[in-house]
Amino acid sequence: MDALQSPSRWPLEFERKQQEIIDLWHACYASLVHRTYFFLLFKGDPADSIYMEVEIRRLSFLKDTYGNGGMESKVVAGSPNTSLVSSARKLQREREMLCRQMQKRLSIEERESMYTKWGVSLSSKRRRLQVARRLWTETKNLEHVRESASLVARLIGLLEPGKALREMFGLSFAPQQFSRRSHNSWRYGRSSLD
Fold first, then answer.
1. Rounded to a whole number, what is the largest CA-CA distance in the chain?
2. In 3-state terms, what secondary structure has residue 127?
3. How confident is the model at residue 168 (pLDDT cuts 50, 70, 90)?
4. Distance between alpha carbon 108 and the CA centroid of its chain, in Å?
5. Name one GO cellular component term (predicted).
6. Where are the alpha helices (DSSP H) in the chain?
7. How far apart are CA 65 and CA 141, in angstroms?
8. Distance of alpha carbon 151 from alpha carbon 145, whole angstroms
9. Contact in structure between 169 and 57 (CB atoms under 8 Å)
């Protein structure tokens, strides 16, 4: 909460925390979609400090657990494997999904422009995969991170990132609003069974 008490220090603190998070995402093979939502949602408002701190703690825990081999020995049969190797595989599958989305969501001209922008030769093979493999890889280059987030957002159909809900990150301090229909949906569903 220091950031809220001294707003003049918050912009520098935000940049430091943002860079720490970006580095931890890379070390933990965090989902590119998660990175994108988080990066585009939290832009430096002092109220974001709690979300930044929670993300740092979550990622630090994962990194420490992976580094100590803790998850490997604690994985129970039937539970999701949360090892570093598993995370790397999931990240690779996510990159392949984004590669397929490039084909679906971008025109030929847009793809060619994207290849040029990302430094992929137009005469090379597997250009889409080359671009997908470059996303979110230069963790110290904030412009690269912005471009990566922008492309991922476009590929997944996130048209208005500012309208994403902070609640998706598991921290909602606002009371939940239930409509009568959603709160008692079992009543409405029951009539269709009669």
1. 63
2. helix
3. low
4. 27
5. microtubule
6. 2-5, 10-28, 32-41, 49-67, 70-74, 84-105, 108-117, 127-134, 142-156, 180-183, 185-191
7. 27
8. 10
9. no
75: helix, coil or strand?
coil
182 within a domain of the structure (yes/no): no
Q: Give a yes or no: residue 84 inside a domain.
A: yes
55-56-61 Cα angle (round to 5): 100
Q: Which pLDDT score is estimated for 6?
A: 66
Whether the Cβ atoms of residue 129 and residue 99 lie closer than 8 Å to each other? yes
Within a domain: 174: no
The reply to whether 126 falls in a domain is yes
Least Cα distance to 95 among 154, 32, 27, 26 occurs for 32
Model pLDDT for residues 123-166, shown as the tens digit of each residue: 999 999 999 999 999 999 999 999 999 999 999 998 655 555 55
Alpha carbon distances (Å) from 66 to 42, 86, 124: 26, 11, 36
Alpha carbon distance 6, 29 (integer Å):
33
Count of structural domains, the chain: 1
Signed CA dihedral, 89, 91, 95, 97: sign only? positive
In order of 10, 15, 101, 126, the CA distances from 52 in angstroms are 12, 11, 29, 36
Paired tokens of 160: 């208005």
Helices (H) and strands (E) in the chain, counts: 11, 0
65 lies in which domain range?
2-169
